[in-house]
Amino acid sequence: MESRETHGAPEPEERRNRRKPGGPEVAGPDLNMTPMIDCVFQLLIFFMCATKFKTLEGKLLAYLPKTMGPHNVPSPEEKLPIRVTLHWNPHTRQAKVYVGQQYMGIADRGGIAAAETRVREIRTTGTEKAEIDAQPVLPFRYVSDTLNALIRSRVKEISFAASPP
Amino acid sequence: MKPRKIDEGDLKMEMTPMIDCVFQLLIFFMICTEIAQSELEMLTLPHASESIPDEKPDKKRMVLNVTKDGKIKFRGKSKSKQQLHDLLALEARIAPKEKDNPALSSKAILIRSDSEAEYKHVQLIMQECATVGIWKLELAAASQKKAKGAD
């Protein structure tokens, strides 16, 4: 009885040699793929670990005064904006919050929330503008928190005070 | 029934599709890494409940990053005050103008500042923006606490 191994499907070696039409039946050199696959996998794992995909972030809209050009001269009847001042104490590492001249408290201990309440009260008098005056050394998160509180209190125009040169 | 015996010499794993897939993945991750790192620095953004999602941003919008140590970075490179001014001036010059005031740019720029960075660096960007006629700003914020930027 004929065995399947010898007379059935051709051997892989024979199959390779048959691909060369007309050529002598010489086996080609065997390419060792293992080191290349190892390297590629190493690279793949590296890039998979190193990749930081862009995630959806939020943003707060802020507008600077339109001071350029001839079209934006403020009218004298305009009301003064609500001034929210942030004062940073580098020794205690605390930010004090003021609305106008009124002290609202430490920013991390409800000062910004108190300022928000006060701004809401002032808004009822018809003032729709607010200005954030922050010290240059203040950590940015306090400015962001204040801006967030002013947006929450539905102030229409929020601007930033320029620091003295 | 007796299990069929297979000669182990006949078994050859076809590697080509696997290598194709691996190379595709490799190229994908290489490109993603490049894109993600070019614009956005790894920052801890401040939390803001009133922030609006930055969906479908203008692809040509300028993104300035302010790191915790006070470096202002654009596309991964630190910029000095003069370089920042030149950069913003160029941006303002090529941007479309406001209809009611042609001295002002109608395009917004995004400022991504670390929550612990000193405000003066953001203030510097704002001042330079005001000087060159950019008045629309977007301040990046995380909508969840402890969220990290660019991850």
What layout of secondary structure does this protein have?
The complex is a heterodimer of chains A (165) and B (151).
Chain A: H1 4-7, H2 12-18, H3 34-50, E1 58-63, E2 82-89, E3 94-99, E4 102-106, H4 111-123, E5 129-134, H5 140-152, E6 157-160
Parallel strand pairs in A: 2-5, 5-6
Antiparallel strand pairs in A: 2-3, 3-4
Chain B: H1 16-39, E1 52-53, E2 63-66, E3 72-74, E4 77-78, H2 81-94, E5 109-113, H3 119-132, E6 136-141
Parallel strand pairs in B: 2-5, 5-6
Antiparallel strand pairs in B: 2-3, 3-4
Helix pairs in contact in B: 2-3
Could you please describe the fold and organization of this structure?
The complex is a heterodimer of chains A (165) and B (151). Chain A is α/β, with parallel strands linked by helices and 165 residues long. Chain A has a domain at 82-160: Nucleotidyltransferase, domain 5, CATH 3.30.420. Helices cover 33% and strands 21% of the residues of chain A. Chain A has helices at 4-7, 12-18, 34-50, 111-123, 140-152, and strands at residues 58-63, 82-89, 94-99, 102-106, 129-134, 157-160. In chain A, strand 2 (82-89) and strand 3 (94-99) form a beta hairpin. In chain A, helix 4 runs parallel beside helix 5 (140-152). Chain B is of the alpha/beta class. Chain B has a domain at 38-51 and 59-139. Helices cover 34% and strands 15% of the residues of chain B. Chain B is built from 3 helices and 6 strands; from the N terminus they run αββββαβαβ. Chain B has a 5-stranded mixed beta sheet with strand order 4-3-2-5-6, with helices on one face. In chain B, helix 2 packs across helix 3 (119-132). Chain B starts with 15 loop residues before the first helix and ends in a 10-residue tail after the last strand. Residues 145-151 of chain B have low confidence and may be disordered. At the A-B interface, helix 3, strand 1 and helix 5 of A face helix 1, strand 1, strand 5, helix 3 and strand 6 of B. Strand 1 of chain A pairs antiparallel with strand 6 of chain B, so a sheet runs across the interface.
